[in-house]
Amino acid sequence: MMVALCTGMLFIVYRTTLFQYEHTEVRPTLLIHLCVRESAFASGLLNNLPRGIVRPNSDMELKPLWSSSSRQTEVDASNRRYLLAMPVGITQKRNVDTVVQKFLPENFTVMLFHYDGNLDGWWDLEWSSKAIHIVAHNQTKWWFAKRFLHPAVVSIYDYIFLWDEDLGVQHFNPARYLDIVRSEGLEISQPALDPNSTEIHHRITIRARMKKFHRRVYDVRGKVKCSDSSDGPPCTGFVEGMAPVFSRSAWYCAWHLIQNDLVHGWGMDMKLGYCAQGDRTKKVGVVDREYVVHKGIQSLGGSGKKVLHS
Predict the structure, then answer these.
(1) Angle between helices 2-18 and 29-43 (to 10 degrees)
(2) 280 near 273, Cβ under 8 Å?
(3) What span, in angstroms and rounded, lies between the C-alpha atoms of 141 and 87?
(4) pLDDT (tens digit, 9 = 90+) per residue, 180-198?
(5) Which domain holds residue 28?
(6) Does the residue 60 lie in any domain?
(7) Which residues does UniProt assign to the signal peptide (predicted)?
(8) Which terminal residue of the chain has fewer beta carbons within 10 Å of its beta carbon, N or C?
(9) How confident is the model at residue 124 (pLDDT cuts 50, 70, 90)?
(10) Rounded to two decimals, what is the model's pTM?
(11) What is the predicted pLDDT for the residue at 20?
């Protein structure tokens, strides 16, 4: 009976995600945990385990080696928690340090993906021992995300920031950013880009100085004409891959969207709207009040140049 119920509910979640213009918001996290557990029991894989000890999910919180109470090692479910995950190389150490110091005071867990193999060069930073470090030579952000940000592992985090290492955060405050995202119901978002950024690819990502946030851009120039009738990227329902922010539910969907052999992720940002948990023209947005500078430094080497594509 439970298997049939789970199958039916998961089908509903799938259909709601597939048809991105539906307005019903779906929060699949608890349902998925229940179904994974019950399906495993039904298949016989966990029959020898007492049901009270089965845990279908985990987290990235560091645990003390010794504790006077087991409760101290549990994540307090009443507190909001967030995750910042970044691919990093030692050449961008100074900028990464600046970014992390902005996020840590706001109840963020920090996970660094070291694509250059250099881990020893980070230990002199005060916060380094509090971060999660994962090393794999010459791998990209999406490779790391697919393998180490499984929804069952990051389900305690309300929002997941999957950022590049070359973002300037002088004008960005994580707490104020999240206040805007929550109040406006944005399931997928990004901070706007300073117009003076070295690298800008889509006009929708450029900061609108007089707005708190925006969901669409109007532009009659270039190859793509953006107007009120536009209902998809890059005119509306779009964020770019360098600084996406996902709600828990949106990340559950986006993780399944990432193909196992995905390398650079070019073009995937055009598909993220499928995971908006409703109408992408309303659930996806760019936050102008808290913005960043995109320096355009390629993660695996090379140099950026100022470009703008409509």
Answers:
(1) 140
(2) yes
(3) 6
(4) 999 999 999 999 999 988 8
(5) 2-53
(6) no
(7) 1-19
(8) N
(9) very high
(10) 0.79
(11) 39
